[in-house]
Each structure stands twice: as C-alpha cells, then as structure tokens.
Amino acid sequence: MAFSVVFQTALMLALLSWRTCQSEVLAEYSPLTPEGLNISVSSALQHLHFQWTVHKLPYQELQMVFPIEISRVETSKVIWMGNYSTTVKQDQVLHWSWESELPLECAPHFVRIKSIVNDARFPELSFTSNWSSWKEVRAPTPEQNHWLIFPRNKLVEEGSNVTFCYNSARNPGLSCYVESALIDGEQLDSNLFTFTLTNIPFIRTQGTNIYCGVNHTLKDGVVLFVSKVLEEPKNFSCETQDFKTLNCTWDPGVDTGLGYNRQPSQQYTLFDSVSGKKKFCVHNNWCNWEISQDLPATFNFTLTAENYLRKRTVSTAFALTDRVHLKAPESVYFKNVSATNATVTWKVPVFRNYVTLLCQIELHDKENVRQEHNVSIKGNGEFLFSELQPDTEYVVRIRCASARHVWKWSKWAAATLVTAEAAPSKALDVWRIVKSNEGLHNVTLFWKPLSKFHANGKILFYNIVAKNLDKKSELKLLCIPAPTNGTELTLDQGSYQIQVTANNSVGPSPTSEIVISENSGNEEVEEEKINGTKDGFLVSWNPRYGDRAGHVVDWCEHPQNLHCDLQWKYLGSNTTSTVISSDAFRPGIRYNFGIYELSTDKTAYLVEKKTGYTQELAPLDSPQVAVANLTPHSFTLSWKDYDTESQRGFIQGYYVCLKSNSTECHPDSVKEGLPDKSTCCKHDISNPKQKTFLVKNLQPESFYEFSVSSYTSAGEGPNGTFTKVTTPDGRSYMLMHIILPMMLCVLLIAVVCYWKSQWVKEKCYPDIPDPYKSSILSLVKSKENPHLTVMNVKDCIPDAIEVINKSEGTKVQFTGKPLTESESPRPANLYLLPAEDFSGLAPCISFENFTYNESACDSGSCAHIPVPTTAPPCQLGMLASPDNSLTSLENTHTHSQGEIPAGEMNMNYVSQLASPMLGDKDSLLINPPEPVLCSEYKMQMAVPSHLASPVLSE
Amino acid sequence: MDLRAGDSWGMLACLCTVLWHLPAVPALNRTGDPGPGPSIQKTYDLTRYLEHQLRSLAGTYLNYLGPPFNEPDFNPPRLGAETLPRATVNLDVWRSLNDKLRLTQNYEAYSHLLCYLRGLNRQAATGELRRSLAHFCTSLQGLLGSIAGVMAALGYPLPQPLPGTEPTWAPGPAHSDFLQKMDDFWLLKELQTWLWRSAKDFNRLKKKMQPPAAAVTLHLEAHGF
C-alpha cells in the first residue's frame, strides 16, 4: 500500500517535470506550427486549396485549430478570417479550401495560417503557434494579356449571384456592359473594379454577354452561361407489358443544356439496387430495362438526373407483377348470337399463363353502358351475355389487368354485336276517327309506330282485320306496308271489331283491338270551353257509363293544317282528368279535345268535347260589316259571315266605333281617342252571338263613319277601316214614301188603261169615221157655208182607180179592176177619174179628208160630224183658200222626199186606210154613199209636185 | 434589309425559273461547245442567291448570340478570326488578278468558310438554327461545286489542300466563349463579304467570256437583289 502511494507520487512528479520541460521545448521550437503550406488555385471554381502538415505530434492524434487569414490586393487588407478545426494525425497532410466570391484572377491574395492545440484530453498541451508568413497567391492567367474581365466562361445556375471584376489599368475610361446595359463597378483598387450580378436570370442558351470597351471600342468580353435549375424527374414509374422488358418513364422537366457545349442536356441514369445494374438512358424521358428471367422479379430503381451543376434522384421499388400493364385484348369475337344471348371470346397478348388476369367487360348500346362484368381468366377469355335486347347493336369493350394488383388497365378492345330479331313485344297503340256518311262509316285508323325497344326488328308491314260483329263471317283484311302509320276503311253502319298487328321478319306483335259501333261518329256532344296554360290543358270530364275499360282523349296538334296530326292518350278507367301538354301547342291556336269512354268491349263513346287556347290572343281581323235600313235617324250594321272559329281567342263581343261631327256620345257608348287623334263613340256588344247593331239617334243629312272590331280576353282586334255613311234628308225621305206609291198607282192605272184600250178606243174614237159625227161639218158650216152638207160616197161612181204613187210600207188594197203591168208605173196618186163618157159631163169634184184633222180631235170633239151631201160640184176645192191648197201640196211634195215625220205619215195613211173605199169596204157596202157625178179623192199626202200642179191648173 | 422566309422562297423560285430557261437564251445556247459562259452565269446567280439567303441566316444567328453581336453598328476587333480567309483586297490588286487566280481564291475561300460553317452548325443549340445552317451549307457546297465546274471549263486545276492545313474548329477550355462568338460574327461577316466579292468576280468573268457579237446580257431582276 505504501509502495503504491510513493510510486504514484513519484510518477506525478516525473510527469510534471516532463511537461514543464516539454513546454519550454515547444515554445522554443514550435513543433506544432503548420509547415509546408501549399496553396493551389482553382480558377473555374474560384477555390483556394490549402495543404500543410504539422510535424512532431506528441500523440497519434491531436485536436487542433488552425486560424487562417486571407488578404486581397495587399496583406493588410484582410478579407477573411476563420478557424479550421480538425483532428490532426501523425504525418497527415491537411487540406482546406476557401471559395472566393471574387474571381481569383482579379487580384493577388495573401494567406497565412497558425495553429492552436486545443485538445481537452491533453490540457497540458495548450499551445498557440505564431502566424506563418504571408503567402501570395495569384491565379494563373493565359498569355493573352488583353483579358480584362473575369471570371471567364462561368457556368452558374439561374438565380445565382456572380461577382465580376475588370481591370482598367491599360484602358483608362473602360466601361462595362451586361447585355448592352452599362454597369457601374465598385472600385476595389486603383484600376480594379468589381460588380456583382444577383439573382441572375436565364436569357438564352448561348449565355449572357458581359463586355467592356472604351468609347464603343470593344476591348474584352466574357460569356456568363446561366443554366436553368435542374428539376427532379417527375412521375417516375416502370411497367411491363410482356414480362420481358420494363419501360420506365418520367417527366424530365426543363432542358438545362447550353450552347457552345458549355453544358449538355441533363443525363439520366437508371440504377437497380437489387441487381446492382446501372444503365445510362439515351432518351430524356424514358428508358427500357431488360428483365433477367433468373432474378427475382423485384426492383428498386433510382433514377438520377445530372448536369454539370446539380444531381437529382428519384426512386421506386416494386414487384414485377405489380407493374403489369397489359396490351389491349385481341381477337374479340362473338359466337352463338341469338335475340337475347351472345358469347364473347377474346385473347390477351403475351403474358405468363400462371398470372391470373382480371378483365372488365362492358356492354354498351348507343346511349349507355347496359352491362358491366368483371371476369378472372387464365389464358383466353369467354363470357356469355344474356338479357340482351333483340335486334340491337351493342358495343362490347374488354380490358384486362393483372388480378394480383391492378396497376393499370390495358387499353380497351372493342367489337360490335348485333342481336337477332324477335317478334314485336307490344301491341300497337291504335286510335281512330269515325265519320258517318250516307249510311257508311269512314274509319281512319291511326297507330303509333313501335319503339325500337318493342319492335324487336324492322317492322315490315301492318295487318288489319275488320270483323263485322253482326255478320261474323264478314272479314276485311288489309296489309299496310311500313312505315305507314294509318289507313282508311269504309265500313257499313254495323258494328265492327278492328284488329291491328305490326309484323317484322319473325312474327306479329300482340293484337290491338278497337270496336266501331253503329253510333260511332254520330254522337252529339256540346263543346265546352276550357282555359289552357303555356304548360298545356287540364282536361277533366264526368264519367258517364258504368262499365268502362278506360278513357281516350284525342286532339289535333296542328288543327290549322290539312293533316291535323291527330294525337291521343289512353287513360285509366277511374281517371277523370289529365293534363295534355305538347311542344307543338302555340298561343292563339284553338285546340279541340274529344273525350271518349272505352267500354269493356273496346267500343269508344264520345262523352265530352273541350276547346280552348293555351293562350288567347287578340283577334287578327275584323268582321266585314254591311249597312242596312238606312234612315235619317238610324242604320243597322250586320256581320253575319264573320268566322269566329279561326280567331286567336274566344270572341267575347264586339266594339262598334262611330265617328260623327257631334262631340257628345250616346249614354250607352264611351268616347275613345283614335290613333289619328280623332275620337269615336264606342259601343260595346258583349254578346258574341249578336251580329247586328242598330245605330240610332242620328241626325238626318249627316256624315258618319263606323268600324266594327271584335275582342277576346286578350284584347281587341284591329280597328277595321271606317265605313262612311250619310243619313238621308228627312223630307225627301218622306216624299219618297208618298210619291213612290202614287207613281205606282198611276202606272197601274196606265197599265189598266192600256189593257182596256180597245174599250176606251171604242168608247172615245171608234175606227170607222162617221162623217156625220165629224166636227168638220159643223166647223165648215159655221164659218163658210151654213148649207154645206156631207157628201155621200155612194153618190160617186168610180169607174177606174189608179195608183200613182206608192210609199214604202204602204199597203193599198183595191177593189175593181186590177192593174195591168203597163199601168203600174204610174204615179201613186189616187185619182178617181170619170169614164170617158162622162168626161165632159161634170166637173171634177175633189175634197179634202178632214176626218182626222187633229185640230178637230184636239179640240176634244172626236165626234163624227156629218157632212152635207148638197155641196155643188167642183166647189169643194174652193172651200179652201188657194193658199191652203198650195201649202198642202207643198207639204205633200216635201214629204215625198223621204222626210216625212213618222207620226205625220202614219196619220195620213191611217186616214187613207180608213177611207170608205179602202179600209171599211163593208161599211161602204152597208151604207153606200150618195152617187156623185164627178168626184175626186184628193190625197192628203205623197202627191208629187209635177203631178199636183196640173191638178191645180185644172 | 431583312429577308423573310417568303422572300427566300420567292428568290429560289425565281432562280429556278431562270436556270430552267437558261438553255433557251440564244446567246447561251449556241450550237457546239457553249463554253464556260453558262457555268459562270449559273455561278453568278447562285452567288447572288446565297448572298440574300445569308442575310436571313445571319440575322437569326446574331440574335441567337445576343447583344452586342446583333447590334447594327457592332464592329469588334478581328481577334480570333485571323485564320478566316479575307475577302477584302486592294482594288488594283483585284483588277490585276487573272482568271485562274481569281477563281482559285474563291474556291479556297469557300472551302475554308464551308468548313468553319459546319463547325458553327455543330455547336448550335436549337434545332431550327441547325436546320437553317445545314441548308445554307448545302447551298454553299453547291456554289463550291459550281466554281469547280467553271475552273474545269476553263482548264484550271483545282487547288489541292495541303495536308494538315485543314481548318479545324475545336474551342479549347482556355478559349473564351466571347471570342468564339466574335469568331462566329466574323465568319458570317466574312462570308457575306466573300459572296459580294464573288458576285463581282463572276460578273467580271462573265463579261469577259461573252463574245462581243453575240453579247447578250441576261438581266436578272429579282426583288431584293
């Protein structure tokens, strides 16, 4: 025990004395001072690499600190101070680097270093050396001494900061530019300037130009290559289609390649840590990897993107079966295709048969996916579709994936399937229109075409069978080719059952049946108005008959068209209302609805009729108005033919607008302004059935204008053109009412008179002139000779008669000797000449026929005045004055020239015909005149002058 | 003057038309040996076409280099471009050149320029620029062949390149990229000057080769020439 204590004390004293001795030695020889300081320059990286050693370490290793000072331009301008701490081993060469923000070519750098022992394990070795001497460092520059600006050919990433320097020692006034922009440099030394570009952008692959010059003379320039920042590959994944090759893909991001070969595009490397294999990828976004069949099918890939400045990696690990992306299935075929079933088969290209595949099968029709199935297969696939629709085109799509892990589905493989046809599955929706005509039923059948879903194939024709229910044996068969949707039948008045079927290539549809009863088409049902809305019509009805199978409502969607587009709707037996809506309904169109009850035997009975508008509109036109019963104080308007059915709303009444000079309106009318700023009195006729209107309380001989317009609930129709009416004068109106009957009476009397003219004639002026009744006698007697008497014709004995002149149209009848041809051309003067034997016996007697002297008649005395027969021969001519005779002859002559007035002519001829010699021969015979020795019958007319004068001379 | 792509195509169409109709020109379609006349004319036309094609290409390429290279008044010192064949020559010297020497200088110049141009193409970063340069190189190759044809027609031998003097384009790491850009600039500029000079050369040759009696000047008018 005592020995050990003594030993320890002695050891401690020895150590202590050794330490003291050692300290003295170290202080004197500085054995731990850095030695062999070597500094190398990396201009491109702007790095100073330090290398030194520490000799004579007392221990194998020692924790030391090396303070370092770096000066620029001159030693006194220390720009950086720092410590490098490290564990120094025996004979170790120490390395340390320092990066300068300023290019090392810009200025000389000075470096010194010292060491400090600072090892807690050896506190006794605490020691600080002296600074080493300053070591100057100059970056090597090429021989070309015209380089003024540094760094040269620098490659940095976008967003970096770069400090440039330029030396203007040999080029006073040197100024520098970055891409044409002048840069203000910071003076570092007398001729040394620096400037720093911060957050440098990428401008172009050819680099950013920085150049210096004096007075626009280029002296030097450098290119700063700015690379885009390398991005991490995105969406890196690998998959196999065939278990032989893995296809790895990724999104490379931006290309960091630069011009002048300063930096190629980033390179990609694929490394599998499981197999330890590595592959350089040629393409920048995909790479193929051969799968070794003898290795376990697991991979741990690392994708490395790399350029000169940066490296980026992404990794993925997977089992091969989890990255199966199969090719689309092939050889998709159908077999055993029927109307409702079909089997699809397919193959999946190259894959290992031991891998179970999951396949998705979709069955599409033209609109939707109808069936979806998932099927697990090994090898070839097969699937049976059922519940298919007949005669339908489907598209079957199939895709597959590994059943173990669905990484990605393969692309779809598609094929078209068309199922076979089947008989139509639904009876036709049939309706009819029945019209009775001359004891026959004209039945128009309509049916709606079957939907594709129910047709089950192409409908080829429709069969129609009409059975007479009264005569069971009577059948009518019709075959209507598709796509006709209706036909017409003419049936007699009996009851008929009509059956309709649609037929495709497989067979007929179920039968549709309707019954036409005897009364069909003859139902009399009152029409009821209903109000529609823009959404349609609410049609309701009251059930009529007890047993009914349902209801049918029919209507025309386009009632104004020739083909009204009949629509119908079958409704249940208990339904009493329905809403009829259609996109075809338009405002202002009247729609008529027929409501039928269907009996249990399928007979339809019309029970109600409705009519209405979805929206009533104002009328489009106005009635054509006629004016009647025009009086001084009133007139009547009527518009019987106005078609209210075609109007755009229910006519609720009429407005009669009356314009007059009066400013006041009748109390039952309203004054209303017109567009032309005039006013009218408006009468409202609220009864639409009233189609006449009496306009009264008018002023005679006044001017009125009126128009008539109809109105509906939506408003008034257009005001028609104003018709002008002028009331008649009251007095003339009255006169018309008195004079007209009077004139009628006079006319009646005249007619009666004419009718009774014979009677009047006989009474007033008989045909046979009676000389004794003639007034001439009294007239002559009273004026000239009171003894004058009427000559009796029978006293003259004519022996010859000669016609000397015959006027046109005159018919002369002769008695006695007929004329010979030689005698006929003689002038048509009638001479009563005595026979030659008597020529000298008596003078010629002539007389004027005054029988029909108008003056005599005019005087009112038409009585025959008897002429005395005692007149002396040849004195008769002297009764008249010579002047009178001459005048008479002249008149006669003149008339012979064809200018004789008809009346006058007639009168003269009447007198001739009325002579006893000609016209009234019988009278002559009955009352023969007294014989006269010589007498001359003097014509009252048509005596030629050359013939007349000799007579006068005689 | 900037040339648009449409102008270039129009020029090409015009040139093709002219070349197509050259045999129909009586003065150039003499019976017997036509002599070097047609070849010289063809070479002259091709020179003018290339001159305008280069204007479009140079504009694109200088924009690709960036400022100050695309600035109109940029005139850098000819530092690294000393190896480029100079087109500039004293007028008296040029007048005194004989036909053989004139043609030989043209041939040698385009041989070198074509080689440099191919180097330029290799380092272009964009595909479109590479295509334009390749197209121009093809045309320049055609011009070289055309000059060789004229020389052959006149009985002059083609100059043989000395072994080892084939110009190379290998920018080393110490080479400044800015100087490289300046070389590119000078290459384009020298090429343009050479094409201008060649047009004068071949015009002079053309006039010289035409017989006085049958002298017909084919006046080529094209928009932009």
UniProtKB/TrEMBL annotation, chain A:
Quote the InterPro entries the UniProt record gives. Answer: FN3_dom (IPR003961), FN3_sf (IPR036116), Ig-like_fold (IPR013783), LIFR_D2 (IPR040817), Type1_Cytokine_Rcpt_Type2 (IPR052672)
Q: Which residues form the signal peptide?
A: 1-23
Read off the Pfam families from this record: fn3, LIFR_D2, LIFR_D4
Taxonomic superkingdom: Eukaryota
Protein name in the entry: Oncostatin M receptor
Q: Which GO terms describe its biological process?
A: positive regulation of cell population proliferation
Cellular compartments per GO CC: apical plasma membrane; oncostatin-M receptor complex
Q: What sections of the protein cross the membrane?
A: 733-755
Q: From which organism does this entry originate?
A: Chinchilla lanigera
User: What protein family is recorded?
Assistant: Belongs to the type I cytokine receptor family. Type 2 subfamily.
Q: Which residues form the Fibronectin type-III domain?
A: 328-422, 426-523, 619-730
Membrane as UniProt keyword: yes
* Membrane topology designation: Single-pass type I membrane protein
PANTHER family xrefs? INTERLEUKIN-27 RECEPTOR SUBUNIT ALPHA
Sorted keywords for this record are: Disulfide bond, Glycoprotein, Membrane, Receptor, Repeat, Signal, Transmembrane, Transmembrane helix
Q: Give the subcellular location.
A: Membrane
Q: Name one GO molecular function term.
A: growth factor binding
Automatic annotation (TrEMBL), chain B:
- Listed transmembrane segments: none
Main function? In complex with CRLF1, forms a heterodimeric neurotropic cytokine that plays a crucial role during neuronal development. Also stimulates B-cells. Binds to and activates the ILST/gp130 receptor.
Q: Can you say where in the cell this protein is located?
A: Secreted
Q: Which Pfam families match?
A: PRF
- What keywords are annotated for this sequence in UniProt? Cytokine, Glycoprotein, Secreted, Signal
Q: Name one GO cellular component term.
A: CRLF-CLCF1 complex
Gene encoding the protein: CLCF1
Signal peptide bounds: 1-27
- Please give the biological process terms from Gene Ontology that the record holds: B cell differentiation; cell surface receptor signaling pathway via JAK-STAT; negative regulation of neuron apoptotic process; positive regulation of astrocyte differentiation; positive regulation of B cell proliferation; positive regulation of isotype switching to IgE isotypes
Query: Which coarse location class applies to the principal site listed for this UniProt protein?
Result: secreted
Subunit structure of this chain's protein: Forms a heteromeric complex with cardiotrophin-like cytokine CRLF1/CLF-1; the CRLF1-CLCF1 complex is a ligand for the ciliary neurotrophic factor receptor/CNTFR. The CRLF1-CLCF1 heterodimer binds SORL1 (via N-terminal ectodomain); within this complex, the interaction is mediated predominantly by the CRLF1 moiety. The tripartite signaling complex formed by CRLF1, CLCF1 and CNTFR also binds SORL1.
Xref: SUPFAM superfamilies: 4-helical cytokines (SSF47266)
Please tell me the species this chain comes from: Chinchilla lanigera (Long-tailed chinchilla)
**Any idea what this protein is called?**
Cardiotrophin-like cytokine factor 1
The UniProt family comment states: Belongs to the IL-6 superfamily.
One example GO MF annotation: ciliary neurotrophic factor receptor binding
